[in-house]
TrEMBL record:
Taxonomic lineage: Bacteria, Pseudomonadati, Pseudomonadota, Gammaproteobacteria, Alteromonadales
Keyword Iron part of the UniProt annotation: yes
The protein's role, per its UniProt record: Could be a mediator in iron transactions between iron acquisition and iron-requiring processes, such as synthesis and/or repair of Fe-S clusters in biosynthetic enzymes.
Name of this protein: Probable Fe(2+)-trafficking protein
Organism: Pseudoalteromonas shioyasakiensis
NCBIfam families per record: PRK05408.1 (NF003817)
Top-rank taxon: Bacteria
InterPro entries xrefs: Fe_traffick_prot_YggX, Fe_traffick_prot_YggX_sf
Key words of the record: Iron
Family assignment from sequence similarity: Belongs to the Fe(2+)-trafficking protein family.
Keyword Metal-binding: no
Amino acid sequence: MARTVFCQKLQKEAEGLGFQLYPGELGEKIFNNISKEAWGQWQHKQTMLINEKHLNMMDPEHRAFLEEQMVGFLFEGKDVEIEGYRPPEQ
């Protein structure tokens, strides 16, 4: 049976992550409080941020920026805003 958590992002009971995907205390907080669905949403936003802002994951400042955006998105109800980005029309 899949592990469930009360997802802080989605504000509902949902399937939890299979294992801790991020290191340290923040990783533990994510594992215990964020669902697979919300993590997938973050991964999509993260990819957009990396590509649109040309982030270099070898740069500690860029990693810190991305972590700040992740915490805001997952735990503080903030959306990731990318200047000039317009979603494709459907």
